[in-house]
Specification:
The structure is a single chain. The protein is mostly helical. The protein folds into three domains: 32 residues; 41 residues, no CATH class; 126 residues, Tetratricopeptide repeat domain (Serine Threonine Protein Phosphatase 5, Tetratricopeptide repeat, Alpha Horseshoe). The chain contains twelve helices and no strands. The longest helix has 18 residues. The chain is globular, with a radius of gyration of 41 Å. It starts with a helix and ends with a helix. This is Putative Zn-dependent protease. One of its GO terms (molecular function) is peptidase activity. One of its GO terms (biological process) is proteolysis.
Length: 241
């Protein structure tokens, strides 16, 4: 009798585990009869198909264009449009009638010289110049190396590295870098001034004088070039006497 009850208990547990409520009903029948009857298979369940994804809408409204800023438009490598704008700035700089006007135009040209096409690299160039001005040479070196690795076609980064070489009394590398900057942008008046200063310091006064003249042909009201050229011509006059 005990074995029969144990068998019935096992049958009840198995029925509950396998078929849930249906198994429980079958187990009651087993308890009543003491026999296990074959149970019919449950009907097949049809699984509905997943809904198809909605088609992608390619006609979404485009974001509105931001208003153009002339200084921002000069950013990045020169496109044909920006090249024409830069040419116009050079023309305006030569024809500027007052120091104030020429200074404003020169500022815009300097911005165009610095642009690399990357906001982060532009920022690094500014940080490098600030670091150089504050004699934080190691920091300036890090920024210059980063920009040089990615945009070696930018004249400003060569100019800044030339300044760094000069700070370390590395004259030959400084001359090489400033020449490269001049090749990349021969009308960069700041590069011309720096190159002239290098030549003057090495005793090449005639070469320096030619570069000051070249800078003034681009930026006639550039006071630094005017002052340095005057010093050289006066010194040459005193020597001649």
């Amino acid at each position: 009798m005990t074995k029969t009850r144990s068998s019935l208990t096992v049958s009840l547990i198995s029925a509950l585990m396998i078929t849930g409520a249906a198994g429980f009903a079958a187990a009651e029948d087993i308890s009543a009869t003491g026999k296990t009857e074959p149970q019919p298979m449950p009907p097949a369940v049809t699984i509905p198909e997943a809904p198809k994804p909605a088609p992608i809408n390619n006609t979404a409204a485009k974001p509105k264009e931001k208003p153009k800023n002339p200084d921002v438009e000069m950013a990045g490598p020169l496109t044909e449009t920006r090249r024409k704008e830069q040419e116009q700035l050079f023309t305006d700089l030569r024809k500027a009638s007052t120091p104030e006007k020429s200074h404003a135009i020169a500022s815009r040209l300097r911005q165009s010289f610095v642009r690399t096409g990357s906001d982060s690299l532009d920022l690094m160039l500014r940080w490098a110049e600030t670091a150089l001005n504050q004699s934080r040479d190691a920091e300036a070196q890090d920024y210059i190396d980063e920009v040089m690795a990615q945009r070696p076609d930018n004249a400003t980064v060569w100019q800044l590295r030339a300044r760094l070489h000069l700070r370390r009394n590395e004259l030959a590398p400084a001359l090489n870098d400033i020449r490269q900057a001049m090749i990349l942008e021969p009308r960069n008046f700041d590069v011309l001034i720096n190159y002239a200063t290098l030549l003057r310091e090495t005793g090449n006064r005639k070469g320096a004088l030619r570069l000051y003249e070249q800078a003034l042909s681009v930026y006639p009201m550039m006071k630094e070039a005017q002052d340095e050229m005057l010093k050289l011509t006066e010194a040459d006059s005193d020597t001649a006497l």
